[in-house]
């Protein structure tokens, strides 16, 4: 195997020689860097050794031979703090093993190179020893001078320190006390004396452990014992003290251990910052942040803290929650004013607080007229319903406001169950949903949470929030159910029925979303869209009718909701839609439920009269369900009565229910006498259709003829009738 120098040969170029020199410096730095006290990194240290390695290499080959550079290399090592004895021995080992190997010349005898290398090692060691001796003497001299100077300075500093300490001790804004290790108070400053009432003898001479307080944290005195035993140097705690007058002094206390010259514990130093006023202020701010300003009850913030704590409890813990909302509170506010409403809330809060006095019970005000009562324990199944009953009983007695006796009612939603299964937000949402279920049932009652009812309510809420975007995204479509003329069996027209193709729930009928649209006001833009689409489709049917066909053009029936009926733009919107489409007004029939027109005044009937005068037919939908006065029909601008299916259900079989038959016969006779056409909904059998024809009904719709479907199917039915 060849050595690095043999591999290079005598013809090695400068780059190869430099590379071998760097390898030697790398080996050298790895050997002595671990025992060198330097701030340099190892690559930086290696860069510092590279010129020293070059000096050794040059000295190895220089003629005549001179070991002087090696002596300077040894001194240079001392300059870079390679003063550890191992640094010299490792350096000599590296030079002995690798200098000739990496930096030798194959043109020279090996024995000569080894001899020169040995002399370089001796010179390096001599230079290293000489430099180290000079450095040591210099440091000793500097230390001696520093010691003399330090002694003088120390005397001056001791005096200055004593003076400063006395000034700090006496004039400090915090209380300072010094005690021995037995706890005897030896010295206190004026500030600490004032903090404890102003009498020094009440402080000096007492023992530290006499200042125990019931609110001390358990670890406070453990840390004190560790300090006097010398196991810790200091500790910091918030600690209360009793003053002589019985009041409590709250402090931020820092206790430090003072040791003697030999490092043994000698004294303890206490620094006390008076935090009493700050603590009282924080307690006040905390109270204001967690309690309702009007009623003094815990507010939403504190309630959620307690609820989350109750839900996090384990080991079979349960909880019960009553969510209360006052019935008709807005009417009281509107009639008597907000001041009276506030007094009512204060009285209600007092009554609620008297109902929740057992351990684990609390009452809070969430805001407005909404309150919650929480009970915890292991028997909350019975306790929570008893709590709800007590609340309703407490509210039963009238409250006197403005000289009037006001009856207070409330609706309560109850959620009860084991801890750890639901989050606080889920519990409150379920209670809120249940409370509204109690309110919808008439109020002044409580209801228990029902997961299925919660799911339905959450679905309704999801549909409500999705409605506006659904209209923008075009998720609604219309199906058409034919209206059949009972006289000749031909398709007379169709009713437009809107559907919602929901991304998650599939196709939803109007019962699922029309009430939600009514509640949110979206029924107006949705109704206008339905009218536009239905009229556009009817116009298309008119255009497809063959010239000279004996079958009249199909009519389109569109439902109007009560909200649309009250909308001021109803007439203008309808006129605009008809004019844009070119559909004759007589081909449009607007259906209005009977319940929407019960007791209607002239202002409500005016837009319907205007539409009727234009030629638009008005149909009274679900007739017979609103219990309206039949004589009232004469003042309504209607042309069609749509008889509710409840009157004809008994006619689906043969023989028909005689009572139903008589009722239908009477309604048809009355309608015809008023020149009104009669349409029957829900026709499902041929027997039923035949009997209705015999009774004189004009048109009918129902599954017997066709289910609601796409518009092209209706046009097909119409063409079939024409054929």
Features:
723 residues; alpha/beta; Globin-like; Beta-Lactamase; Alpha-Beta Plaits; five-stranded antiparallel beta sheet; 24 helices; elongated; Biofilm_reg_signaling; EAL domain-containing protein; EAL_sf; Rev_trsase/Diguanyl_cyclase
Q: Care to describe what's here?
A:
Helices cover 51% and strands 19% of the residues. It starts with a helix and ends with a helix. It is elongated, with a radius of gyration of 50 Å. With 723 residues, the chain is an alpha/beta fold. The longest helix is centred in the first third of the chain and has 62 residues, at 110-171. Residues 161-231 form the PAS domain. Residues 317-451 form the GGDEF domain.
How is the secondary structure organized here?
Layout: H1 4-8, H2 14-32, H3 42-61, H4 68-79, H5 85-103, H6 110-171, E1 175-180, E2 185-188, H7 190-195, H8 218-228, E3 234-242, E4 248-259, E5 265-274, H9 276-290, H10 300-312, E6 318-327, H11 329-336, H12 338-355, E7 361-367, E8 370-377, H13 380-396, E9 399-401, E10 404-406, E11 409-418, H14 424-440, E12 445-448, H15 451-473, E13 476-485, E14 491-502, E15 506-508, H16 510-520, H17 523-544, E16 555-560, H18 562-566, H19 570-581, E17 588-593, H20 594-597, H21 602-614, E18 617-623, E19 640-643, H22 658-673, E20 677-680, H23 686-694, E21 699-700, H24 711-722
Parallel strand pairs: 11-12, 14-16, 16-17, 17-18, 18-19, 19-20, 20-21
Antiparallel strand pairs: 1-2, 1-5, 3-4, 4-5, 6-8, 6-11, 7-8, 9-10, 13-14, 13-21, 14-15
Helix pairs in contact: 2-3, 2-5, 3-4, 3-6, 4-6, 5-6, 11-12, 12-13, 15-16, 17-19, 19-21
Organism: Streptomyces marianii
Pfam family, one: GGDEF
InterPro entries: Biofilm_reg_signaling (IPR052155), EAL_dom (IPR001633), EAL_sf (IPR035919), GGDEF_dom (IPR000160), Nucleotide_cyclase (IPR029787), PAC (IPR001610), PAS (IPR000014), PAS-assoc_C (IPR000700)
């Amino acid at each position: 195997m060849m050595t690095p120098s043999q591999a290079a040969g005598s013809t090695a170029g400068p780059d190869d020689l430099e590379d071998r020199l760097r390898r030697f410096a790398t080996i050298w730095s790895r050997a002595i860097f671990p025992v060198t006290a330097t701030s340099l990194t190892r690559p930086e240290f290696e860069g510092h050794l590279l010129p020293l390695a070059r000096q050794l290499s040059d000295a190895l080959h220089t003629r005549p031979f001179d070991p002087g550079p090696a002596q300077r290399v040894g001194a240079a090592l001392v300059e870079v703090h390679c003063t550890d004895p191992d640094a010299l021995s490792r350096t000599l080992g590296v030079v002995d093993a690798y200098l000739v190997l990496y930096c030798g010349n194959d043109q020279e005898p090996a024995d000569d190179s080894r001899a020169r290398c040995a002399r370089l090692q001796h010179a390096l060691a001599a230079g290293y020893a000489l430099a180290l001796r000079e450095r040591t003497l210099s440091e000793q001299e500097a230390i001696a001078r520093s010691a003399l100077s330090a002694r003088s300075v120390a005397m001056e500093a001791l005096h200055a320190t004593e003076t400063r300490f006395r000034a700090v001790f006496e004039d400090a804004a915090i209380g300072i006390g010094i005690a021995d290790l037995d706890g005897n108070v030896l010295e206190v400053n004026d500030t600490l004396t004032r903090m404890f009432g102003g009498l020094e003898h009440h402080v000096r001479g007492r023992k530290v452990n006499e200042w125990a307080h019931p609110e001390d944290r358990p670890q406070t005195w453990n840390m004190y014992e560790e300090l006097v035993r010398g196991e810790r140097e200091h500790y910091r705690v918030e600690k209360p003290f009793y003053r002589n007058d019985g009041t409590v002094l709250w402090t931020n206390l820092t206790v430090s251990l003072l040791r003697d010259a030999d490092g043994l514990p000698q004294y303890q130093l206490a620094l006390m910052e008076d935090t009493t006023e700050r603590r009282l202020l924080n307690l006040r701010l905390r109270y204001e942040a967690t309690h309702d300003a009007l009623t003094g009850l815990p507010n939403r913030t504190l309630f959620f803290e307690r609820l989350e704590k109750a839900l996090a409890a384990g080991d079979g813990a349960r909880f019960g929650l009553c969510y209360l909302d006052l019935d008709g509170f807005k009417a009281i506010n509107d009639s008597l004013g907000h001041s009276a409403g506030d007094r009512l809330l204060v009285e209600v809060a007092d009554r609620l607080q008297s109902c929740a006095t057992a351990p684990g019970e609390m009452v809070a005000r969430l805001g407005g007229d909404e309150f919650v009562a929480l009970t915890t324990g292991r028997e909350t199944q019975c306790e929570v319903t008893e709590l709800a009953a007590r609340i309703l009983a407490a509210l039963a007695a009238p409250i006197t406001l403005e000289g009037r006796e006001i009856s207070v009612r409330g609706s309560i939603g109850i959620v009860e169950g084991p801890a750890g299964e639901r989050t606080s937000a889920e519990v409150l949402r379920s209670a809120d949903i249940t409370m509204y279920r109690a309110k919808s049932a008439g109020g002044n009652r409580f209801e228990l949470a029902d997961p299925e009812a919660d799911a339905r309510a959450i679905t309704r809420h999801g549909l409500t929030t999705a409605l506006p975007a659904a209209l923008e995204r075009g998720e609604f479509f219309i199906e058409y159910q034919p209206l059949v003329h009972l006289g000749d069996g031909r398709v007379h027209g169709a009713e437009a029925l809107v559907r919602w193709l929901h991304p998650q729930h599939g196709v939803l009928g109007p019962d699922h979303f029309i009430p939600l649209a009514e509640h949110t006001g979206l029924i107006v833009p949705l109704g206008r869209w339905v009218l536009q689409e239905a009229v556009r489709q009817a116009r298309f049917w008119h255009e497809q009718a063959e010239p000279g066909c004996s079958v009249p053009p199909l009519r389109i029936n569109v439902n109007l909701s009560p909200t649309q009926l009250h909308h001021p733009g109803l007439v203008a919107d309808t006129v605009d839609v008809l004019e844009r489409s070119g559909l004759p007004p007589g081909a449009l029939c607007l259906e209005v439920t009977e319940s929407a027109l019960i007791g209607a005044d002239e202002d409500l009937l005016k837009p319907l009269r205007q539409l009727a005068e234009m030629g638009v037919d008005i149909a009274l939908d679900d007739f017979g369900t609103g219990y309206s006065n039949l004589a009232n029909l004469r003042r309504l601008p209607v042309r069609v009565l749509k008889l509710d299916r409840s009157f004809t259900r008994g006619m689906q079989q043969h023989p028909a229910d005689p009572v139903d038959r008589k009722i239908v016969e009477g309604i048809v006779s009355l309608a015809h006498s008023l020149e009104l056409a009669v349409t029957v909904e829900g026709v499902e059998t041929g027997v039923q259709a035949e009997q209705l024809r015999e009774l004189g009904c004009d048109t009918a719709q129902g599954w017997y003829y066709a289910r609601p479907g796409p518009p092209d199917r209706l046009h097909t039915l119409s063409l079939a009738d024409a054929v």
